[in-house]
Write a structure and sequence with these properties.
With 520 residues, this protein is of the alpha/beta class. It has three domains: 184 residues, Rossmann fold; 210 residues, Rossmann fold (3-Layer(aba) Sandwich), CATH 3.40.50.12780; 102 residues, GMP Synthetase, Chain A, domain 3 (2-Layer Sandwich). The chain contains 16 helices and 27 strands. The strands form six sheets. Strands 2-1-13-12-14-15-16-17-18 form a nine-stranded mixed β-sheet, with helices on both faces. A seven-stranded mixed β-sheet has the order 9-8-5-3-4-10-11, sandwiched between helices. The chain has a four-stranded antiparallel β-sheet with strand order 19-20-21-22. A hairpin with a 2-residue loop joins strand 6 and strand 7. Helix 2 packs across helix 3. The structure holds adenosine monophosphate. Adenosine monophosphate binds next to strand 16, strand 21 and strand 22.
Length: 520
C-alpha cells in the first residue's frame, strides 16, 4: 500500500496538471495552480495563528471552495481535521468541539437560512480550548473576537509552505464523528494512510480517469463526500461542488458541466430520477451508490439508463469502502448484494458470541482493513467494545455471504425487528415496497406492541400524483412475503427525517410513528 500523506495528491497535481481545472463552485472556476496558491496562503496564515502538528481544527463548512483550501492547508501542517456537518446545531456542535479538544473552528457566517456566529458565541465560554473562530462570509457580519477568513488569507505573504513531518501510518488526518443514529457521536481516528489506501482501493471499480467530472454533493464532512472529492484529486480530475441538494438545480448542473461521476446515497439518485425527464444527463456514467440500503428497483432503473453506479458497503470507522460490486458482476449481484470484499479487506460473519456462522447464515459483519480507524478518540471503552484482541472490528451490520464470497446486507443489528418471535429484516420488505407502483421511498420501522413485542409499520413517501392507500400497500405485500412480514400498519409522509448526510433517520421515524399510534 502506498503509505503517503493526503496532501501529496495536491503536490502531484501541481507538478503534472497545474493548469487543468480542479474546482468549480457556482460561477467560480479554479485550476490546480490557483487552488495551490490559496492553500499556501492559508497554511502560512494558520501557522502564524500558532496552529501546529497534532492540533485539532474543526471544519464546519458546506461544500464550498474554502473547505477545500482549509482541508489541504490544515493537513499540510500535520494538524487534524475535525469534520463537522454544517447541519449540526448547538448540542451536536458543543459535544464535538468539547470531545475533540478543537483549538480552532472554521464555519460560515450564514448558510441555508442559519446564522452560525450567534451559536458559536453562545458556546465559546464553555470551550476553553477553542482559541480561534474563523468565519467565512462578509467582514461586516463578523464580531471582533472572530477572524474573517478572507482577511486571514490576505494576511499571508504567499510563501509556499512545506508539509510537516508526517508519519502517514500513525498520524491522524481526521476525527470523523459517526452519524450517531444511536447514542452520542464518537470521533473515529483516521490516519493519512487509512484514507489514502481506502480511496485508492475503493474507486478502482468505477474506472475513472483524469477526464471525469465528479459531482460532490454529499457533504464533504461525511466519508462519502470526502471520498468523492479525493477520488477526483487522485485522478487529476475535476470537482464540481454543490452545497445544497435540490433535484432540479443539480440536474441542471449535471447537464451544464457534463458530470460523469456521482457518489451519493440512494435517496439522491431516486430524487434525481424522479425529475430527470427534462434534462440531458446522458454524460453521467459511473459512481458510487452507498451509505444505506440500495433498493434493487432503483438500481435497475439506473442501469437501464446506462448509469453504471456501483453499490459498495462501508462506514466511517473503516474510512469508507469494504465491499464492492463491479461492472462485470451479474445483475443479481449488482442489484441484490454489495459484492465482494475489496482488496486488503478481510471479512467474517459472527453470531452474538462472536463465533463464525456457517456459510449462507446471517451474522454480524466483522472486518480488518487498511482503512480501519485507530479507535474512537478518548473512548477506550467504546473502542474495546468494537474491537477484539485480534484487531477485528465489529460493525453492528448484519449480512450473509455465499460460497462465492458475495455479501448481502440484511440490516443493522439494532434495526432488526422481532415480531412475535420472528426476526424481520426491514430491508427485505423495503426492497419489495420500492417495486410497488406509486411508492417513491419506503422505510420499515418496528413499534412496540403488547402482544407481539414489536410490530411493523411501513412508512411511505408516495410519488407526487399517486393515489395509493394503506390497504393497497398491504395487499401488494400479501402473497409475496410470509404473512408475518406484511406491514401491520402503514403511514404516509411528505418527507422523512434525515441524518445530516441524507440517510433516513430511522430512530426519529420510529418515534414519529410510535407517537401517532394509540397505546394498546
Ligand atoms: P456511515 O458511517 O455514516 O457511513 O454509516 C455506515 C453504515 O451505513 C453502515 O454501518 C451500514 O449500516 C450502512 N451502509 C453503508 N453502505 C451500505 C449499503 N451498501 N447497504 C446497506 N447499508 C449500508
Amino acid at each position: 500500500m502506498p503509505f503517503t500523506t493526503i496532501g501529496s495528491v495536491l503536490a502531484a497535481n501541481l507538478e503534472t496538471n497545474p493548469d487543468r481545472e480542479a474546482l468549480v463552485y457556482g460561477d467560480a472556476r479554479l485550476t490546480y495552480r490557483q487552488l495551490g496558491k490559496h492553500v499556501d496562503r492559508l497554511a502560512e496564515a494558520l501557522t502564524n495563528l500558532g496552529i501546529r502538528k497534532g492540533d485539532k481544527i474543526a471544519l464546519d463548512l458546506p461544500n464550498w471552495l474554502e473547505f477545500v483550501f482549509a482541508y489541504f492547508a490544515i493537513l499540510r501542517l500535520g494538524a487534524v481535521i475535525v469534520l463537522v456537518n454544517p447541519r449540526y446545531r448547538e448540542i451536536e456542535l458543543a459535544h464535538i468541539l468539547r470531545d475533540s479538544d478543537a483549538v480552532a473552528i472554521l464555519l460560515p457566517t450564514h448558510f441555508d437560512d442559519f446564522d452560525y456566529l450567534p451559536m458559536i458565541q453562545r458556546l465559546r465560554p464553555g470551550l476553553p480550548e477553542l482559541r480561534h473562530v474563523i468565519a467565512v462570509g462578509e467582514q461586516k457580519d463578523i464580531p471582533t473576537d472572530a477572524i474573517c477568513f478572507a482577511d486571514l488569507i490576505a494576511s499571508a505573504s504567499g510563501k509556499p509552505q512545506r508539509e510537516a513531518n508526517i508519519d502517514p501510518a500513525q498520524d491522524l488526518a481526521f476525527l470523523m464523528y459517526t452519524s450517531g443514529t444511536t447514542g452520542k457521536p464518537k470521533g473515529a481516528m483516521i490516519t493519512h494512510a487509512n484514507f489514502v489506501s481506502t480511496t485508492l482501493i475503493a474507486y478502482e471499480p468505477f474506472q475513472v480517469s483524469r477526464d471525469d467530472v465528479f459531482l460532490v454533493l454529499v457533504p464533504v464532512t461525511h466519508i462519502i463526500g470526502l471520498f468523492c472529492m479525493n477520488s477526483a484529486f487522485f485522478n487529476h480530475a475535476k470537482v464540481i461542488l454543490v452545497d445544497l441538494f435540490k433535484a432540479e438545480p443539480v440536474l441542471q448542473i449535471i447537464e451544464r458541466e457534463k458530470v460523469t461521476a456521482q457518489y451519493a446515497v440512494p435517496t439522491v439518485f431516486a430524487l434525481e430520477l424522479a425529475n430527470a425527464d427534462k434534462y440531458d444527463i446522458s454524460s453521467l456514467r459511473t459512481g458510487l451508490i452507498a451509505g444505506a440500503t440500495v433498493p434493487a428497483e432503483l438500481l435497475h432503473r439506473l442501469i437501464a439508463l446506462n448509469i453504471q453506479v456501483h453499490p459498495q458497503y462501508g462506514m466511517t470507522e473503516t474510512s469508507g469502502g469494504l465491499t464492492t460490486t463491479r461492472v462485470e458482476d451479474g445483475l443479481f449481484e449488482r442489484t441484490q448484494t454489495v459484492g465482494r470484499a475489496m482488496s486488503g479487506v478481510q471479512i467474517k460473519l459472527v453470531d452474538d458470541e462472536r463465533r463464525v456462522v456457517a456459510e449462507g447464515q446471517v451474522g454480524e459483519i466483522a472486518v480488518k482493513s487498511y482503512g480501519l480507524m485507530k479507535g474512537y478518540y478518548k473512548q477506550p471503552e467504546a473502542t474495546a467494545a468494537a474491537f477484539d484482541a485480534e484487531g477485528w472490528f465489529y460493525t453492528g451490520d448484519l449480512g450473509c455471504r455465499d460460497e462465492r464470497g458475495v455479501i448481502r446486507i440484511v440490516g443493522r443489528k439494532k434495526d432488526m425487528i422481532i415480531r412475535g418471535g420472528y426476526n424481520i429484516y426491514p430491508r427485505e420488505i423495503e426492497d419489495l415496497l420500492f417495486t410497488c407502483p406509486g411508492v417513491l421511498e419506503a422505510a420499515i420501522v418496528g413499534v412496540p406492541d403488547s402482544v407481539l413485542g414489536e410490530k411493523t409499520c411501513a412508512c411511505i413517501r408516495a410519488q407526487p400524483d399517486a393515489h395509493i392507500g394503506a390497504a393497497e400497500i398491504q395487499d401488494f405485500c400479501r402473497g409475496k412475503l410470509a404473512d408475518y412480514k406484511v406491514p401491520d400498519c402503514v403511514q404516509f409522509f411528505d418527507a422523512f427525517p434525515q441524518t445530516p448526510t441524507g440517510k433516513i433517520y430511522k430512530a426519529r421515524l420510529r418515534e414519529a410513528v410510535a407517537k401517532t399510534l394509540a397505546p394498546n
